[in-house]
Amino acid sequence: MDSLIDSNTMKWNEELIDGLFVEEDAQLIKKIPRSQVATKDTLYWPYTTSGHCTCKSGYRFLKEESKLESNQQVPPIHVKQVWNRIWQLQVPPKIKNFLWWACRNAIPTKQALMKRKILADSIYERCHDAVEGSMHALWSCPELEVVWSDSDEWCFRSEIEFTDVKELLSWLIAKGKSLELFAYTAWIVWNQRNKARVNQQAAPLHQVAQQAKQKLVQVKADLQND
Prior knowledge:
Helix content: 40-55%
Order of helices and strands: HHHHHHHHHHH
Number of helices: 11
Shape: globular
Distance between the termini: 40 Å
Number of strands: 0
């Protein structure tokens, strides 16, 4: 993220940010105050709120890793296939870019911003119970159950654990799930989260799934009319 900051002025490189991020995220990033003093990067452990590694959090991490490795329902990730499918999606470019960044854990979640010492707290504001990483913010948070339980397409959500968005997308591709519907749903979830954080009016979560379906129907209709 240091490449987003002008090393001479210690201000955001607004032209670069506008080119890399969707408009909503770019505006949020540029509003974050920057320190005028250069600071060195520090090691950060993402599995505790303090950023310090503890025996308890390390044990929990290894236990979860072991559980995921033994889960035969999740196929190996084919990275090139995931990237190709993202760019082939029949969705606006800003949503393709968003998914690509989410797969790289590069969307500005609280976890990502805390690593850069921009925020002091990485706990997700919806549930107040877990670190806000890309996967938790878009998919696995219990507060999002009302979104992803709306369709049988996502009935596996409570049965299979994924380590990150890239692994989730790889599984969706392997199982022939609707990536377009997932993309629109995740996009609306993220934008709803952004608006709620800055106290802007946002649609309630129980309307997100229906909004995503309507967007997808509209796009398909527009393609047929072209």
